[in-house]
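Example (one chain per record):
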Amino acid sequence: MSWLPLSFGAPMVLLGLLALPAIWWLLRLTPPRPRTEPFPPLKILARVLKREETPQQSPWWLTLLRLLIAALVIMALADPVWNPREKTPVSGTGLVLVIDNGWASAPDWDKRMATARLLIADSTDLPVVIAFTAEKPDADMGPFDASTALDRLRAATPRPVPTDRPAIYARVSETLALMPDASLAILSDGLAAAGDDEAFEELLKNGAANLVWAAPERMTPIALTASENRIDGFLLTAIRASSNMAPARLSAGAFDDKGRRIADATLNFDAGETQTDATMAVPFELRNDFAFLALDGEHHAGAVRVLDESAKRRRIGLISQAEADQAQPLLSPLYYIHRALSPFADLIEPSNPDLAQAIPQILDQKPAMLIMSDVAAIPEQARQKLAEWVEGGGTLVRFAGPRLASANASTETGSGTEDDLLPVRLRSGERSFGGALSWTTPQPVAEFPASGPFAGLDTPRDITVTRQVLAEPSPDIMERSWASLADGTPLVTGKKRGKGTIALFHIAPTATWSNLPISGSFVEMLQRIVLLSRNQGTVDMADETTLAALAPYRMIAADGSLAPPSPEARPLEPGADNVVTLENPPGLYGSQAGVLAHNLLSPASTLAPLQRPQAQIPMSDIAYDFDPSSLLKGPFLTIALILIALDTLIMFAMNSVLSRRMRAMRYGATTATLLALFILPVLLGSTAFADDRKPDDAMSIDAVSTTRIAYVITGISSLDAVSHAGLQGLNRFLLDKTALEPGEPAGIDIATDELAFYPLIYWPIDPASPVPGNEAIARIDAYMRQGGTVLFDTRDQYSSGFGQGAASPATQRLRDILDNLNIPPLEPVPADHVLTKSFYMLPEFPGRFNGSPLWVEASLDASNADDRPVRTGDGVSPILITANDLAGAWAIDANGAPLLPTVPPDPMQRTYALRSGVNIMMYMLTGNYKSDQVHVPVLLERLGQ
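Predicted structure:
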């Protein structure tokens, strides 16, 4: 019956149904009655007793029920399957599975894995080779047995990177050469990539028994390829595959760094259209808060685009003292600056030409950068406000010109201008090349310095300079030169002032002094300075550290979410032609100080459908889908068990067993209830009189059941919050890096709380906190004498020690506390101390600051042999003292991000601070086991003898 979607895995078992008539006969058969021999003395009793009669045959309906039970059991043993599927043609000496797990496979990954499991199930006992095209080429591919292959599939995940078919197919081809006549199954993501044709030829050159090809029915993913912050809004560009030509409409969202949706746009694909644009028309202040863009309903890495500071538009003020000639706009001092900056910045100009009013008017609009063209004298009332703006983080860019040159020449000293709003001191007058009365020729631009903001830009070979304003020679002139001419004279100089930057182009912004303003290099140089002008959350491009590799910060996961970096992610080299790989997955690279966006797709990317390969071997196509069949063995056995239980109840009812047992149960329940009513009050009453528990017992049991670090509650809410957050950050690091599973940090009052539960107490010292009383000091002294350790942290990076010289208020408060304690002699942690190697190898113990030593109990009787790793006599010091603010470096917020910056802002300093905390905890919990390890070789030698 082909119309019935039911099949059996073991159809021969159904022959057991032929035994149902025999079972019917056995169920109805009744053995012959035994012969009765009456015993005369019992005749009277036989007449008195009630005779129970048993029917000779069971009722027909009960027999039918038992036959149904037998039939269900037989059908269950035959492995019934509802809606059975056709098995895939897997044969030969093995099965070779090649699975695309790149970013395009994420939307249908579950179906892809279900299809792979069916292929493995159909291969019975054949060895299985599994290769993923988005993994490293040296990954283990097998062959595996079926069970191990299924475990491998369960552990596999899609990757947010493109596939690497050429490398993987080459390895699979080598495997096929060792497994002749194996079945080859390719589970593709349907997305074409460069080199696919050559990769398929390499894969199939060693032959296979047959080829099973699986691909999505239609390429549905839509991806973001570009975004641009324009004047009128934020432009998005999305693409789709050419095989998906139906009209489509979807929405996109812009999110801030906390994941809040702050803007929307609608993308419309017309029929036959593979690329479309949409604009988020929102104010640029709101656009500057965009952290990433995402397409709604698209759960893959291509649907998310992260943004860095280069995507943020900046408000730039323009000031010039020269009046623009409307008839000759090319001679305007701001014309080329307008043309260079308007595509990626919002330009503002004052309405009043008077500098005394124009500069404050521009600064009131909070620009990121201010460009002044040929402005010589700045009014004093505006100069102070301009200087404060630069100190606060603004970027001032000035251009030379006739006015600035004449101002130098008119100085009384004749030695040039001394202006604190210029990066260098200028010489009087100007320098001219290539004139009729000059023997010099126009000077070209030299290669940009590697430590300046223009590092990495191509040297403009066709740019020459005919006039310039010269800088006075100084020892730091080379450090302040961002660009120079071939003769070594500065073209662009700059310096830091406070949090801001001052830069000077030693030429005019028109084409009269140089052809630089009419070149593409001028646009690139201004763009670099705009990047430098970011006041918050940016990497200082003038800092030579930006040339170092950027650490992974937040990565785009395969499902399109933002996640912490995986262990295999590696730092990204800035400025290089970076591609998305497993070592450099898409996401943000850098730190809280600044990030660089590394996105999956470029503006030139396309989504082309993958063509089915042509082969000379038998081929079959399958579709991605879950197993449509349902096993009925379990339901059949369940129904049979229910019917067996029903048969048992019927038998109890027919034999009156059930009624008798119910009466007995009711009698037993009544008796138990009466006993409980009489006995329980007595038991409860006696227990109440014997209960000697105390209110703090539960807290004590909880405290000793897990290792917890305590901190002293100072009464200063902000300080206590940092202490709690710091110990939470240390706990998380301990969980990640060690086998220790600490409990929640405990805030304690040293005057009242029990201290013996905690191996380490962190005590931040603040001058505003009161000095503990004598009773509290006595409890701390007893705690330290009984094996506990107190970590005092003055958080002021002192270096004067504990003498009677000048000290900070926090250090003086610490001295007041220690005067009442029995403190052993102290010393900075020696290089061979257990603390330097209890878990990590550490030469120092930094916190938020890195300058104070960590003080411990001095090992006065230490005498080291040359072959000993640590000094002898090391016990657990009852006191540790630092000024590096360890808790401030450990502190994290609710999202696990660092709460306070390190000084200086160095991510590795925070890592070393956390490692210091791990070493301290290992030292507290294990004591001097490192010192004891020196005896291990001697003991082993003796055991060998």
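Caption: Residues 1-30+55-84+629-650 form one domain.
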